[in-house]
Amino acid sequence: MLLPDPSMGSTTHSFFExxxxxAMVASTKLIIAEASKGHLDKARLIFxxxxxxxxxxWNTMMSAYSTHGDAGKAKWFYDRMPEKTMLSWTSMMxxxxxxxxxxxxxxxxxxxxxxxxxxxxxxxxxYLTDGDIFTMRILFDEFPERDIISYTTMxxxxxxxGNLEEAKMVFDGxxxxxxxxxxALLVGYAENQDLEDARYFFDRMPQWNVVSWTIMISAYAxxxxxxxxxxxxxxxxxxxIALFNAVLNGFNESRDLEKVKRFFDEMPAWNLVSWTTxxxxxxxxGDIANSQRIFDMMPCxxxxxxxxxxxxxxxxxxxxxxxxxxxxxxxxxxVSWTSMLSGYSRSGxxxxxxxxxxxxxxxxxxxxxxLLVGYAxNLHVEKAKQVFEKxxxxxxIxxxALLxxxxxxxxxxxxxxxxxxxxxxxxxxxxxxxxxxSCRNYLGNAWKLYNMMPEHDLVSPSILLAAYSHDFEKSSQxxxxxxxxxxxxxxxxxxxxxxxxCTGTLSKGLAYYHSMSIDYALVPTKQHxxxxxxxxxxxxxxxxxxxxxxxxMNLF
Length: 556
Fold this sequence. Notes:
The structure is a single chain. By secondary structure, this protein is mainly alpha-helical. 73% of the residues lie in helices and 0% in strands.
C-alpha cells in the first residue's frame, strides 16, 4: 500500500479549493439568491467580501437595487463599474423609471454608446409608466427592430388607457403572439368593464395561464359580479393561490367583509397576497384591531405586508401607531416613505413632513406631490407655491393640488391662472375650478364652466346643487337632470335638502328625504338629519324636531 506523499498536500488541497473564477461564480449566485428574496443588505455583504468582481456581479447588484426602486444605490454601482454593458445602461433606466425620474431615463437612452432592442424596450416602458402614449407610439414606430416585448408593451399601453381600437390594431399586426400578448388585450377589455367582449375574447384564447384566469375573475369581481366570478372559478382545471386571491380581492373590492373572512378561512393555503388583502379589507371597514391581528398572525412578513399595515393606520387617522410601525419596519421603500409623508400631512404634522422629506434617500415625483399636497391640504399657500416651483417636474396631481389650495382660500384670480396654465386637465381639475367659481357666488359663470366641461361625473352636478342651495327651483331642476344620468349619492341629497331648508319647502324636503332610502337605497347620515331638523324648525314643526332628534341623538 502506497503512503501519501506529504509533498502532495498542496495539490490535494488545491483539488478541493475552488479557482478564483469558480469562487466568483458561486458568490454571484449567492448574490442573486439573496437579492431575489429582497435581502439587499446580505447581497451587498457578499459582494463586498468578493476578492474580485466581473461585469455580472456588478450588474447583479445594480439590477437588485434598481428592481427595488433604490435609484441612488443603483447609480452608486453604475458610477463605479469598471466596464458598462448594455445591461448596465438598461438597469439604470429601469431604476429611474421606478422612481419616476423620466428625464434621467431619457438622458441614459440618448447617451448610450449603442442601443439594442432591450434599450428601446426600456425607453418604451418608461413612457408607458409616465402615461405618455403619444411619444411612446412615435418611438415604437422608430424601432429598428421589434421583439415580442416591444409589441406587448405597446399593446398594454393602449389597453390600459382604454383605447381598445388601437390595442386591437397592434394585436392584429403582431407577427407572432405569446400568452402575454393575449393577456394584455384581455386586460383592456376587463379594465373597461366590457365584460361581454372580455368573456368572448377569453373563450377564444388558444390557451390560458393563471394570469388569464385571474384577469377574468378579477373583472367579474370588480363589477360586483361575484356569482359569475365564483362560477368561472369553479371551471378552473387546477387551482392556484393567485386565483383564490383574485376571488378574495373581488370580495374586498365590493366591501363585503363577511365574504372576505369566510373565503379566507376556506382557502387551502395562504400567501403574502392573501394575508395582505385581509389586512386591507379590515382597514377599509375601520377595523384596525383586526388588521393588526392578521398582521401579527402572518408566518413571515415582507415589505408589502409592512406597508399594508402602515397604510391601514394612516387611512384610519391613527398617526401615533403609524409612526411606531414605520420605526419598527426592517426597511423602507418609496411606498413606505410616501405613505408616512401622507400620514403626517393628513394629521397636520407639517414639521414632521418637512423633516421626513429631507431624510428621503431618493425624492421621486410621488414624494414631492406628498409634500405639496400636505401644504395644500393645510392651506399653507406660500409653502405650497414654493414646493411647486422647486419640483423638478409636475404631473396632474401637482397641478390639481396647487389649483385646489388657491380655490379653497378664495383666490379666484390665481386659481383661474393656474387652471389656464395647466398643460392637461382632468375631471378633478374642472370640478375644482367649478367649486372655486361656485363658492364665490358667480353662478352664471359656474353654469358656463359646467357646460364647457368635456365630461361630468357625479361630483360635478353636486357642486352646482350646493351653489344653488338658496334657489329650490334651480336645485330641483339640476337634481332631476342628475338623476337621469347618474344615481344620486349622499352628497347630492345633502345639497338638495339644504336647499329645501333654506327655502322652507317642507313637503318637497320630506319627499326627497324619504326618496333617499326608498328609491335609491341610501342610508341618511348626520348631515341629512341636520338639514331635516333645520327644515322642521324653520317650518315650526317642533314635535317632529323632537322626534327626529330623539331617534338619532347618538349622532349629535
